[in-house]
Each structure stands twice: as C-alpha cells, then as structure tokens.
Amino acid sequence: MFEMISDFARDFTQIDNQSMIILLVMVGWATLLIHLAVDSKTYTALFVPGMVIGGMAAFYLERNVPLTMVSTKEINAIILSVLGIVAGFLATVLVISLIHWIGEIRRPLTLDSRT
C-alpha cells in the first residue's frame, strides 16, 4: 500500500518545468476570469487549489495513460491543462454545492423560513 502511494506521489510530482509553467499561466488566466465574474477574492481563492490539482491530475493521467491528442508537446500540454482546469473547477463547484446543500438540510425549519 505504501509503495503504491509513493509511486503515485512520485509520478504526480514529476511534471516537467515547461508543462508546469503552462499550467500556472492557464490557472492565472482562469483565476482572473473567475475574479472578474464573481468579484470576490474569497470565492476566487476557493477555486484555485481545485484548478491546480485538476491540471496536475491531467498531466498525471497523460503520463500513465497515453492521451496524445496532437503531436506537438506544447499544444498537448495546453489542451491537458485546459481540460484539467475545467475538471478541477467543476469538482470545486460540486463540492461547494454539496456543502451548501448539507447546510440547508441541517438548518432547523422555523416559521421565518416557511414564508
């Protein structure tokens, strides 16, 4: 079990510098667009870790399962970054929605909320 976790961590962290720079630039642009749409630094900061982890997970999958979409390495890294960022963004939205839904269920029903 420990060997499997260490193999996963080693593969997860062995992303080349060029792919990491592309990922961080794409996350930066996505963060800017989210901040312009939401206009809240707190909500924007909630989405950044999910997008970074999503992008890194896309590179991890590409390393273990060949997902070569184009022959150029840089374009392939851009496509994987975008797909990973979108997946991380959607996962973060689902987690936030789930937390909100659980909070709504746990809130006691009062006369004020029924009207």
Explain this structure to me?
The chain contains 5 helices and no strands. By secondary structure, it is mostly helical. The protein has one domain.
Q: Please mark out the parts with pLDDT under 50 across 5 or more consecutive residues, or reply none.
A: none
The portion of residues forming beta strands comes to under 5%
Helix tally? 5
Domain count: the total is 1
**What spatial form do the alpha-carbon principal axes imply?**
globular
> What characterizes the major β-sheet?
none
Question: What is the radius of gyration?
Answer: 18 Å
Element string (H = helix, E = strand):
HHHHH
The helix fraction, in percent, is: over 70%
Please state the average pLDDT score.
84
CA(first)-CA(last) distance: 54 Å
* Structure class: mainly alpha
Question: What characteristics describe this protein?
Answer:
115 residues, mainly alpha, globular, 5 helices
Q: Can you lay out the helices and strands and say which pair or pack?
A:
Layout: H1 2-13, H2 17-38, H3 41-64, H4 73-106, H5 111-114
Short overview:
The protein has 115 residues and is mainly α. The protein has five helices and no strands.
